[in-house]
Amino acid sequence: MHPDDSPIFLQLAAQIADDIVTGAYPEESAIPSATEYALFHTMNPATVSKGVNVLVEQGVLYKKRGIGMFVAAGARELLLTRRRAELYPNYIEPLMHEAAVLGIAPAELARMIHDQLTLQEDNS
Q1: Which of 9, 83, 107, 112 has the fewest CB atoms in 10 Å of its CB?
Q2: Rounded Cα distance, 85 and 102, in Å
């Protein structure tokens, strides 16, 4: 969700959020520790903690003292709702603007999107 030029802690938070949305980390399950993430991604544990804390502040993760971080109940739906709200201004609006600049008619753009979605479905 975050571009590659965003701070590393935000990129990590986005990756964890993606993992929650896709079901890699179900609600009420533990996520890897900051140390495990730091070793895997070869980054500073403080950076990992900062990324995890972003999700804690958003109500996506919570801490069980002495045990670790867990995915909050309702976290997946919270993330999906937030992403759906961001879809139009962050993706559709710029896409429509670029299509207009390129002279792509709305029907052609809709066909292009449909064809791509069909291709993705066929490959899954």
Answers
A1: 107
A2: 26
Closest residue by Cα to residue 12 from 46, 62, 78, 64: 46
Q: Helix, strand or coil for residue 58? A: coil
pTM of the model: 0.81
Note whether 68 and 25 are within 8 A (CB): no
pLDDT in tens, 46-66: 999 999 999 999 999 999 999
The C-alpha atoms of residue 90 and residue 119 are separated, in whole angstroms, by 23
Taking alpha carbons only, the member of 117, 78, 109, 116 closest to residue 92 is 109
The 3-state DSSP class for residue 70 equals strand
Burial 25-43 (b: 16+ CB within 10 A, else e): beeeeebbebeebbeeeeb
